[in-house]
What does this fold into?
Amino acid sequence: MSAEGAARGAQAKYYGFNMLWMYVAGHGKPKSADERALDFIAGEGFNFIRLPLDYRFIEPEGGFGNADEDALGVLDDYIQKCNERGLHACVNLHRAPGYCINWPEREKYNLWRDERAQSDFISLWLMLTKRYRHISADKLSFDLVNEPESIPPTHPCTRQEHEALIRRTLRAIRAEDPARRIVIDGFHGGHASLPELADLSINEGVVHSGRGYMPFELTHHKADWVRGGDMDAPAPTYPGVSARGENWDKEYLRRFYAPWKELSDRGVHVHIGEFGCYNKTDNSDALRWFRDLTELFCENGWGYALWNFRGPFGIVEHGRPNAKYEYYKGYNVDKALLDILKPDKSDRFYKQII
It folds into this structure.
């Protein structure tokens, strides 16, 4: 590995949150950075913020040659506010030209198969690469596209199509900025590992980003945006047994993440870019699941980012049944969950197993 590759691939452990300030276009201007939340996060020892964004904030009619400078200025501010507090900022295209895991049918083109969408996608990343070339890789990374999926009703892709676009985009970015840290999400909505792209992590310092939403019936119980979701399903328990007879426990989680661990053992840098539990699952079950999951992540040497900070998946007023909140640093916080997630807890766990 080159010196640049080694620097990019350093196994820094990042722990933090997703912030949804530029998450969905069409509902007004991007939100301002929540500095109070960032102060809280940094003050509790976290070091990472993932910024899922909708490309339509940035791309007006006419393409990326005429990108919206006001929206880009807001993104500049997000990154600066994070970095000022020692928080690494990871910019992610949650909705990319030609694809989003949520309502992909809203896209005219297919990112994986249409040259127009691919050209726009690469042009956007090149524009951001040039704009932020002055920011070091330890402060900023690019997560290319959120949760590629093979089976939505529209805009599907194959692994081969996904791999081809990722390699093409990486080459374009590297030509402008050889040191930028790049993140690629797992396949099948982020859950499936990418052995076909392992060489990019080992040789190019690319981070593979997994998800922590398993068992899905527990983490997304009664989530009304999930296609095919059973709104009348009985309340899940953890540990417990699924409707299909699966035992949900730490060993279940260990088996699920075995393909990711195989990659990690080969030198692939793995990070869990999203995880969490929706607020219809009882909090006591959610907390037991969170504890097992984060301990497994720590055991494997992986950092993680909760979806989100304040909201139905967060640590502040998430609304899960039987939750207990403590007024702490200006927020009503699920302190039991915060204590499970905190990086110092992870470091203590490392010391126990080494």
Observations:
- Confidence is low (pLDDT under 50) at residues 1-10, 349-354.
